[in-house]
Amino acid sequence: MLSLRALPSSARLATTRHAASAKAFVRPSTATMASKRDGMNLDKSTPDNVWKEILNAEEFHILRQKGTERAGTGQYNKFYEDGVYKCAGCGTPLYTSETKFNSGCGWPAFYDEIPGAVDRHVDNTFGMRRVEITCANCGGHLGHVFEGEGFPTPTNQRHCVNSVSIKFDPKK
């Protein structure tokens, strides 16, 4: 294989430029995409075409189309560090680590939200009555809340949340 050092300087520059321009076509990471959200006023009035530009396909499916990730696959299912869980769409703080508990359901579970951060809606899909939870700011689908399941929590509620719907922000 030919080394770049063996090439004339003009060829090395062209090769370097080509490599740099090829990197520009790589899909941005989630962290880069999240930085695109900074400073944007993302809320319930934000149109789908804007969401499609800033969310990856899985985030868009779950947050905007009310999808669900497979049980046991989410990165926050068995994650118990101190911090705040924010909406993956708009960055609104939704839950604190103090309210997260192990329900064994296969998704992150919280017994209470940050006051005013989560809206509730009756969901009659799939022939059952459930309560959907969404981000109060942007309307992004988070999951569902269940009551009366007997967990030893102060609220007797389980907010069953898709990991894709949230981003963890560690306490500083």
TrEMBL record:
Entry EC no(s): 1.8.4.12
Cofactor(s), by name: Zn(2+)
Protein origin, superkingdom: Eukaryota
Annotated cofactor note: Binds 1 zinc ion per subunit.
Reaction catalysis annotation: L-methionyl-[protein] + [thioredoxin]-disulfide + H2O = L-methionyl-(R)-S-oxide-[protein] + [thioredoxin]-dithiol
Residue ranges annotated for the MsrB domain, each copy included: 48-171
InterPro entries: Met_Sox_Rdtase_MsrB, Met_Sox_Rdtase_MsrB_dom, Mss4-like_sf
Reported function: Catalyzes the reduction of methionine sulfoxide (MetSO) to methionine in proteins. Plays a protective role against oxidative stress by restoring activity to proteins that have been inactivated by methionine oxidation. MSRB family specifically reduces the MetSO R-enantiomer.
The protein's name in its UniProt record: Peptide-methionine (R)-S-oxide reductase
Organism whose genome encodes this protein: Edaphochlamys debaryana
